[in-house]
Queue: 2 jobs
Job 1
Amino acid sequence: MSNIIRVGVLGFGGLGQAAARVLAPKSEMILVAAADKKGYVYNPEGLDPNTCITTYNSQGSVGHVKHGGVLSNDSIADLIENSNVDGFFLALPNLPNTFMADVTRQFVKSGWKGVLVDALKRTSAMEQIFTLRDDVKDAGITYMTGCGATPGLLTAAASVAAQSYAEIHSVKITFGVGIANWEAYRATIREDIAHMPAFDVEKARAMTDAEVEALLDETNGIISLENMEHADDVMLEMAGICSRDQVTVGGIVDTRNPKKPLSTNVQVTGRTFEGKLSTHTFTLGDETSMAANVCGPAFGYLKTGVWLQKQGLSGIFTAAEMMPRFVR
Ligand code: NAD
């Protein structure tokens, strides 16, 4: 492994494209690979994010990129086989709810060694990842799970904030997301719809784009969510902070306005050793986008994963158990 971390991004939609732009000015990481549903691109010298984004948006796949692009219906497997990558950010839709676990099995089976980072959201999806703990460890893969914004940045903040207390009473995550149009983040929005009353993952997955449009027309583009099944709960439980039923996650997504409908925050309430009840609140700046708050932490945790790998540590780790390292 050279000192510069060679990165691949799987999934080149909203988050994948933002990830490519986040990496562009970095000197410690270089984007060498990207894949979408219809193809992949690999260039060990580095990829130009603008070329990849323009090609994806005009021709439907990074497989059309002139240098290194390959069209494929099995792009992830083909990319693993034909590339040299230290770590992948999995910016893939988790639709169906078993998809990320299937991709992980694919990595294990391929004999690939390196770091994987996901921004997985559902508790039940992360629990599937945990069942692969031994396989991942034996394969020599260091897998960082739940490393987006929530779960991710906010879960890690809760884990740090909890240290002031002798006893944790509650962790309450409230997020506000504003995006200009839902098509830029189709998987994110479908997965959010899946949390709405009367919906589930399969129903949301089966919806056509026109049906999503119609639903958003009814709500004026707003999705309000309460008591979501979010893996922050299992991550904080595993980190020994509190039990999962003390963690609540909810929020508002505005799919028609990049301005956040409310300030994203996490409140950690507990009792100190002196018996005082208190709440720590960590609030994200309103100017920071979902993409900034997901991709930044994801690469920070990828760097941590590489650091763990260098010490011979493989297996599965969550954002609540580790600190992200800042990528320069
Ligand atoms: P998107 O719909 O914009 O893009 C998905 C991409 O994945 C597309 O490029 C598509 O071609 C590709 N893809 C789909 N199936 C594939 C396959 N079989 N092989 C290769 N590529 C495939 O998605 P998005 O809105 O950017 O969201 C990505 C994920 O990030 C979602 O699962 C979402 O829940 C998650 N997310 C997490 C957080 C967090 O804070 N943890 C926040 C936002 C989004």
Job 2
Amino acid sequence: MDDAILVINAGSSSVKFAVAEAGDHAVTTLVKGKLTRLDQAPHFTATTDAGEVVADTFWEPTGGRQEILFGKLVDWLDHHLDGHTLLAAGHRVVHGGTRFTAPVVVTPRVLDDLADLIPLAPLHQPHNLEAIRAMAAAHPHLPQVACFDTAFHAGHSDAAMRFALPRALHEDGVRRYGFHGLSYEFIARQMARVAPDLARGRVVVAHLGNGASLCAMFNGRSVDSTMGFTALDGLPMGTRTGSIDAGVILYLLDQGMGHETLQHLLYEQSGLLGLSGGIGSDMRTLLGSGRLEAAQAVDYFVYRTVRDIGAMAACLGGLDGLVFTAGIGERSAEIRARIGRGCAWLGIDIDPVANARGTGCISGAMSRAAAWVIPTDEEQMIALHAIEALKTAASDDRISKEEFFHV
Ligand code: AMP
């Protein structure tokens, strides 16, 4: 029997999952899928890594009771993963705060500590924790590992972590954490394999997807990132504003805008969707549209990305390489070319033929700084962390194995 890890990425209305076969130093994805419409008739879909659809069904409504859904999911996996035993569930948890700077095996105490961080990420953390509780109820003997989006950025300098606010607020947790850490960590790992010299240098990684951010890395470690206290900061995104003058928020509050409307505006109605006047949040839609507003939204996205790559390069004292990843970064040659042109002053010279191919090194022979496309895989990173955390916990006498299994 081969060991496998179930990876869970739980959101407000859907749960994404993947199952990875656990090797010694690498994992292979066996199946990926999604549960959507959790509160109605849950829609369960799954595909193999090769893209073959192996499930597409509606389950009986459970009134949103996730423990029933996770029970059904694990039963389905039992029947469809011949020759594999689930070793653990690894969860993406958005916030580890200042305490959790590495993946951790979940115990009741860990879960309480993570619940204390809900005010820092009210839109995501509750769903992440609900999934852990539901899995514990469905399968009390399956160890669970929490992997944090913030952890990779934990080594930032004091200046990179602060807002220019009174110190007491910083002590209360109002500080810049950074997100997309599991993606950046995966990229750092891949870079060490495919471009070891570059991995030791000064690199800006551009995670450009529906959510978008940059990470300044030196020697594979995060030095700074464009996301801060929440995943709202930094680059414009599909529907999120990115950086915005806090004075705008005060103005809107003065105008009588309530908290919920404001939150909806900043997270759901802004970014590319807002900039394009509602044409779309999807980069493909905007690139394919002939309308001026769509072109202006794309211009803004490129402009702000180039501007912040400059800021990240300044944090690093120069630039040895730029890495593109996530949906837009991996698939849009046009956006890469435009960002590349904006970064010519940093020594980036993208080769059009290599860029059109869209994998590996895409910079020209004369480029002073390298440009790469490296696909990210957060699920793999979570699976690798889960295996590692289980090994560490198994050899740690301070962790009671009873507690370890019963969340
Ligand atoms: P992600 O959140 O990483 O899944 O990325 C989603 C984003 O990638 C959306 O804005 C998509 O429009 C964008 N995307 C995916 N494929 C392409 C493509 N071929 N060209 C441009 N954008 C793309």
